[in-house]
Amino acid sequence: MSAIVVTAIAFTACAQKIDAYKVPDAVKASFGKQFPGATARWEKEEGKYEAGFKLDENTMSAVFEADGKMVESEMDMKVADLPPTILAYVKEHYKGKNIKEGAKITLADGTINYEAEVDGKDVIFDAAGKFLKEVKD
Question: What is the 3-state secondary structure (H, E, C) of 31-75?
Answer without folding.
Answer: HHHHCCCCCCEEEEECCEEEEEEEECCEEEEEEECCCCCEEEEEE
